[in-house]
């Protein structure tokens, strides 16, 4: 009689793995709410803003470019909760649609920045020596200029457009992110099982994919979450200077620049509501990023 235990089919293991992942997510969210209530509040703000961005067409009562000079400069009221601008456009609808632009720009630019910065950081930290020296000198040269200035330079080269803004913000901020990823890679590179893999002849690609990348996921999440609020703020600054998403597509920074600044005294609501939305988004991402850093960073978690 065979004493070998029958192996569990893959189809039977899949539901168990899904339940385990769901259980880990629930435990993490419970820990976040219990230990970092401010971070949980920030996560709720981010979730609400993402829902508003996705369902802007259903939430906004008017199209963002629906004009009527007969209702220009109406004060906030029952008909128009946030008032109207100089062309009679509903400010509430434009703030809602502006959330879509700001969230999309923030997420896309952060993705580009983390991917590019992560690639530079991993290659620099893992291979070291001459490649590390070369890449870090390039990072030093890039960081000698303010990020906003570099973003404007890239926008001047690419021209106006939504994707131009995304690329400019993502590329201009990628190099500072590489420093954090490089530091995490240097730690992982010295772990015993990485050295053992090298000793038995494992390829560098195998080690990077199987050992290095899984161990720097937490730093990548921390970098991305802390960076999102900053990117949204930079997008608003670029739009305020006239280099952002071209009209008539609304963005919070563009609304502050195009109409809010011009009609500040006559119609202050044109600046107040986009400014509040921008502040709320930056606050939500920042406190969520700080909470994730405290929970995912083992040095802070131990304390």
Keywords:
14 helices, MetI-like fold, 74% helix
Task: Give the secondary structure arrangement, pairings included.
Blueprint: H1 10-35, H2 37-54, H3 56-59, H4 91-127, H5 129-143, H6 147-158, H7 162-172, H8 174-189, H9 192-199, H10 204-215, H11 217-240, H12 252-260, H13 269-296, H14 298-302
Q: What is the assembly state of the chains in this entry?
A: single chain
Structural class: mainly alpha
* Terminal CA distance: 54 Å
CATH homologous superfamily annotation: MetI-like
* CATH fold-level topology: MetI-like fold
Helix content: over 70%
Number of helices: 14
What would you note in describing this structure?
- With 303 residues, this protein is mostly helical.
- It has one domain: MetI-like (MetI-like fold).
- The chain has 14 helices and no strands.
- Helix 2 packs across helix 13, helix 11 runs parallel beside helix 12 and helix 12 runs antiparallel to helix 13.
- The termini are far apart.
């Amino acid at each position: 009689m065979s004493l070998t235990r029958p192996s569990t089919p893959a189809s039977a293991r899949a539901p168990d793995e899904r339940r385990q992942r769901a259980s880990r997510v629930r435990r993490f969210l419970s820990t976040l709410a219990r230990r970092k209530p401010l971070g949980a509040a920030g996560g709720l703000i981010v979730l609400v803003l993402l829902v508003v961005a996705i369902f802007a067409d259903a939430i906004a009562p008017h199209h963002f470019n629906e004009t009527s000079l007969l209702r220009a400069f109406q004060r906030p009221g029952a008909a128009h909760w946030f008032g109207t601008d100089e062309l009679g456009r509903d400010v509430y609808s434009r703030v809602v649609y502006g959330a879509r632009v700001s969230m999309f720009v923030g997420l896309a630019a952060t993705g580009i920045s983390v991917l590019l910065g992560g690639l530079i950081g991993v290659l620099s930290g893992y291979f070291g020596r001459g490649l590390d020296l070369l890449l870090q000198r390039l990072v030093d040269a890039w960081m000698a200029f303010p990020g906003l200035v570099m973003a404007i330079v890239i926008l001047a080269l690419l021209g106006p457009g939504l994707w131009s803004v995304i690329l400019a913000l993502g590329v201009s901020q990628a190099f500072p992110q590489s420093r954090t990823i490089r530091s995490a890679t240097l730690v992982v590179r010295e772990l015993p099982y990485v050295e053992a893999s090298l000793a038995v002849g494992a390829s560098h690609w195998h080690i990077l994919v199987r050992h290095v990348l899984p161990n720097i996921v937490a730093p990548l999440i921390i970098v991305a979450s802390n960076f999102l609020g900053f990117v949204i703020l930079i997008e608003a600054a670029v739009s305020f200077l006239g280099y952002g998403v071209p009209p008539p597509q609304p963005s919070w920074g563009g609304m502050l620049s195009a109409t809010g600044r011009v009609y500040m005294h006559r119609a202050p609501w044109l600046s107040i509501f986009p400014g509040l939305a921008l502040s709320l988004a930056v606050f939500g991402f920042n406190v969520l990023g700080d909470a994730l850093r405290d929970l995912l960073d083992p040095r802070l978690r131990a304390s």
